[in-house]
Amino acid sequence: MGRSGLPEPISRLIDELAKLPGIGEKNATRLAFHIFKASEGYAKSLAGAIVKTKTEVITCDTCFNFTSVNPCEICRSQSRSSDVICVVEDPLDLIAVEKSGEFKGKYHILQGAISPLEGIGPEDLKIKELINRLNGSEVNEIIVATNTNVEGEATSMYLAKIIKPLSIKVSRIAHGIPMGGDIEYIDELTLGKALRDRREI
Q1: How confident is the model at residue 125 (pLDDT cuts 50, 70, 90)?
Q2: Distance in angstroms between the alpha carbons of the first and the last residue of the chain
Q3: Would you say 96 and 187 are in contact if contact means Cβ atoms under 8 Å apart?
Q4: Which pTM was predicted?
Q5: Are 135 and 168 in contact (CB under 8 A)?
Q6: Which residues pair with 66 in a beta bridge?
Q7: Peptide bond into 116 cis (omega under 30)
Q8: Which of these CATH numbers, 3.40.30.10, 3.20.20.150, 3.40.1360.10, 3.40.50.800, describes 66-200?
Q9: Radius of gyration of the chain from its Cα atoms, rounded to whole angstroms
Q10: Cα dihedral 96, 102, 104, 107 sign
Q11: DSSP notation for the chain
């Protein structure tokens, strides 16, 4: 038997689910019992989806978004503008910007933000890849949509400093977003307004 008289497989499932961010043991226990009570087909489908996520999802060589094809759908799209790139910290931010419905260009995912306290410098992000992407391209504007915290602001200022000499306009999403706020948690209307009201930096 596992914890508190539970069978070992359920106890192990609770342990694994509790490792997920924001879940905790109580929610993990609820989820484990939900999975246990569901049909065997559901359990197998869930397990299969998790395995496929790990085996079939890759990173786009162009924008560094998660994808199952390379380059990703957005990078391949002929209907999206190629002259403007929205720079975000991670794929969850890209999803948030897409939900706003305001942006019809391409993306570049930095995979983080500059944070000296955590030992994360520009060389640890996909900044060099962004510069390589801009050289000889038709891009005439970069929209920096990093978070409005200290790290996001430091990242936006660094990007402006290195991109402006390339004669490319660098703008920052407007601060309809609260300071310290994370892009992925902002509602679509606020994020859409922030994109429309972006300012040059």
Answers
A1: very high
A2: 61
A3: no
A4: 0.78
A5: no
A6: 59
A7: no
A8: 3.40.1360.10
A9: 21
A10: negative
A11: --GGG--HHHHHHHHHHHTSTTTHHHHHHHHHHHHHHS-HHHHHHHHHHHHHHHHH-EE-TTT--EESSSS-HHHH-SSS-SSEEEEESSHHHHHHHHHHT---SEEEE-SS--BGGGTB-GGGTTHHHHHHHHTTS---EEEE---SSHHHHHHHHHHHHHHGGGT-EEEE--TTSPTT--GGGS-HHHHHHHHHT-EE-
Q: For residue range 59-103, what is the model confidence (pLDDT) as tens digits? A: 999 999 999 999 999 999 999 999 999 999 999 999 999 998 989
Contact assessment for residue 187 and residue 195, using Cβ atoms and an 8 Å cutoff = no
Tokens of 200: 């040059």
Architecture of domain 3-56: Orthogonal Bundle (1.10)
Tokens for 80?
């999206």
